[in-house]
Amino acid sequence: MKKNHSFIVTLLIIFALSSCGNHEKTLSTDIVDNPKSANSSNSENAPKIEFENSEHDFGNTMQGERLSYAFKFTNVGKKDLIISQASASCGCTVADFPQDPIAPGKTGYITVVFDTKGLKGYQSKSVTVFANTIPNQISIRITAMVEIT
């Protein structure tokens, strides 16, 4: 019993020491300009994401291939664009997005990777992009016809 007590006390001390200090990343709310967030300003000053193409068709592909496409976008708004999340509709699809703010007039890419392993027939997958825009969600889509090898 004493060994268990010592072990628990040691774990608590390690936890307390590792949690000391300020390790949090903080984001200044000065660059967030959305009526439903930090500054509560109007929508005409909000960032705005505009995709060159919001859909991409991979066409016919063989089962088991990993396909990738980079969706190009521009911040056509007046404030920095911050993408907080890009959520795919299926586990077979993964999206990578810029972590840094995108200044007005600048471009960026959201890369979508689609794994066709175990899939067949017509496939349509969406990625919902969450950002400090109005509205705060926009969807992009990939499609493909997956043929069995």
Provide tags for this entry:
single chain; 149 residues; mainly beta; 4-stranded mixed sheet; flat
Structure description:
It is flat, with a radius of gyration of 22 Å. It has one helix at 2-18; strands spanning 49-51, 55-62, 66-75, 83-88, 93-96, 107-115, 121-131, 137-147. A four-stranded antiparallel sheet has the order 1-3-6-5, with no helix packed on it. Strands 2-8-7-4 form a four-stranded mixed sheet, with no helix packed on it. The chain is built from one helix and eight strands; from the N terminus they run H-E-E-E-E-E-E-E-E. The chain starts with a helix and ends with a strand. The model is unreliable at 15-31 (pLDDT under 50). The protein is mainly β and 149 residues long.
Structure classification: mainly beta
Q: Characterize the main sheet.
A: 4 strands, antiparallel
- List the uncertain runs: 15-31
The percent range for strand residues is 35-45%
Large-scale geometry:
flat
Q: Helical percent range?
A: 10-25%
Distance between the termini: 61 Å
